[in-house]
């Protein structure tokens, strides 16, 4: 376990002290704190958080404080700010924490959540038309705007505090720590705010606090479905990671190559206007396009001298091997066709099926361009990486014969707009250590001259 830096511990302590200062007015004699409502909401929130630790629920329970935020926001809408801050404390201290250090993380939650709840209560009361008097049935429509303001304030405080912990504990720069934090979480918290408002209105209705529990069931079910989706997605990522790591271990020349081809494929997909689902499938296709190397003898992948025609034919089987390996992985969808056909050429001189033009699956045409681009812009033991502009120019020269011109233009536009910034791989090696060859059929092709076929079999 990595030690928490002293500055991060001091930051957490400051958050806890600030939370205590926010809650202190509620503890003063004569403050008029509605202790009954505070106790009920605090007990409800703590009980909800305990569901995530229940053995019966196990890993099926949604994890994280976001699952039951409506309870905290309902408290912010029903109670004075200092009292609303108290609602979060028991659940924060008793909630499920899976990462170490557990005690410090619980203390951190006990600091940030009361601060966010207090801010939400202030924003709700200060908004035009806001205040706890508007929670009656007649005033419900007018409470929507104040409720959204309260939820936004809750989200803003959490984003600011989370960015600070990334700066102090993870040593991130302020720019990267706070970038996108608020925008990514604002919409979900606005939904939580509407659920919290429904709870508050039912709480004030003739049916009383028990009726407000009806809001939690559909909210919990939706959180459970969302958590299941993310667990399934994590399982997909783990499967892909394991396959890529196996290829990297077997062929030292492709370390980092798969991830970069996946990234370039997504850049092309975005320029083509593909939706997020298709972008994700293309990313899988780019990452796994070389998985068939697991079926190629290691001695051929690591051979130092030139390949014989027979050895070249064996390496050229790797797209078919890869397609067979992933045939039963349902979530890959069209990515399987890209794995099989990413070495086809527009003029029909590619392999393994000799497809031409539009008969080549669209995903395969995308991956072919991404694969070629990374091959040319990566360093080999026998040559240095080519400049990005040179690689794009060569792709354009080969468009129509080897590559789909539409895909080449999309990659060029994406690079002009965003640049190309290969990341360092997880093992610390420069990602430019890898690349496969491009064109076993076209010895006179300019792309083939820049990136001759190597042990990777033309990636």
From TrEMBL:
* Keyword Amino-acid biosynthesis assigned: no
According to the UniProt entry, the coiled-coil residues are: none
Q: Which SMART domains match?
A: HDc (SM00471)
Which organism does this sequence originate in? Streptomyces pathocidini
Query: Per its UniProt record, what PANTHER family does this chain match?
Result: CYCLIC DI-GMP PHOSPHODIESTERASE TM_0186-RELATED, LIPOPROTEIN
- Segments forming domain HD-GYP: 232-427
- One Pfam family assigned to this protein is HD_5
Q: What is this protein called?
A: HD domain-containing phosphohydrolase
Per the database record, which ranges form the HD domain?
254-376
| Alphabetical list of CDD domains matching this protein | HDc
Please give the SUPFAM superfamilies that the UniProt record associates with this protein. Answer: HD-domain/PDEase-like (SSF109604)
Endpoints of the signal sequence: 1-23
Q: Which InterPro entries match?
A: Cyclic_di-GMP/3'3'-cGAMP_PDE (IPR052020), HD/PDEase_dom (IPR003607), HD_domain (IPR006674), HD_GYP_dom (IPR037522), HDIG_dom (IPR006675)
Keyword annotations for this protein? Answer: Membrane, Signal, Transmembrane, Transmembrane helix
User: Which residues are listed as membrane-spanning?
Assistant: 33-48, 68-93, 143-169, 181-203, 209-227
């Amino acid at each position: 376990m990595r030690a928490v830096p002293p500055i991060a511990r001091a930051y957490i302590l400051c958050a806890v002290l600030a939370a205590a200062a926010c809650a202190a007015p509620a503890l003063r004699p004569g403050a008029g704190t509605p202790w009954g409502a505070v106790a009920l909401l605090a007990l409800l929130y703590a009980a909800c958080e305990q569901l995530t630790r229940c053995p019966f629920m196990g890993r099926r329970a949604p994890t994280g404080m976001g699952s039951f935020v409506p309870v905290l926001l309902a408290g912010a809408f029903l109670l004075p700010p200092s009292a609303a801050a108290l609602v979060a404390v028991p659940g924060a201290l008793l909630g499920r924490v899976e990462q170490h250090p557990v005690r410090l993380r619980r203390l951190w939650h006990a600091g940030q959540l009361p601060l966010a709840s207090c801010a939400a209560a202030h924003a709700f009361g200060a908004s035009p038309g806001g205040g706890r008097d508007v929670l009656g049935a007649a005033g419900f429509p007018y409470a929507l705007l104040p409720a959204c303001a309260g939820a936004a304030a809750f989200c803003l405080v959490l984003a600011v505090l989370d960015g600070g912990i990334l700066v102090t504990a993870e040593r991130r720069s302020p720019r990267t720590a706070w970038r996108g934090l608020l925008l990514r979480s604002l919409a979900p918290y606005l939904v939580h705010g509407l659920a919290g408002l429904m709870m508050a209105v039912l709480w004030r209705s003739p049916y009383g606090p028990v009726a407000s529990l009806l809001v939690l069931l559909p909210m919990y079910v939706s959180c459970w479905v969302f958590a299941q989706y993310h667990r399934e997605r994590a399982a997909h990522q783990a499967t892909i990671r394991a396959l890529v790591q196996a290829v990297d271990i077997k062929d030292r020349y492709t370390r980092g190559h798969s991830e970069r081809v996946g990234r370039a494929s997504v850049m092309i997909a975005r320029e083509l206007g593909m939706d997020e689902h298709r972008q994700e499938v293309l990313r899988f296709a780019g990452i796994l396009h070389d998985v068939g190397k697991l079926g190629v003898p290691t001695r051929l992948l690591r051979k130092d001298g030139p390949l014989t025609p027979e050895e070249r034919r064996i390496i050229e089987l790797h797209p078919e091997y890869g397609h067979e390996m992933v045939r039963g992985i349902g979530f890959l969808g069209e990515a399987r066709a890209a794995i099989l056909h990413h070495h086809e050429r527009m003029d029909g001189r590619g392999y393994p099926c000799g497809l031409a033009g539009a008969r080549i699956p669209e995903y395969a045409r995308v991956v072919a361009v991404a694969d070629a681009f990374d091959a040319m812009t990566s360093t080999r033991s026998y040559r240095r990486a080519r400049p990005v502009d040179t690689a794009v120019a060569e792709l354009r020269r080969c468009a129509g014969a080897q590559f789909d011109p539409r895909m080449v233009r999309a990659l060029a536009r994406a690079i002009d707009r965003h640049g190309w910034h290969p990341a360092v791989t997880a093992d610390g090696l420069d990602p430019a250590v890898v690349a496969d060859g491009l064109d076993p059929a076209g010895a006179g092709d300019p792309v083939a001259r820049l990136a001759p076929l190597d042990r990777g079999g033309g990636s």
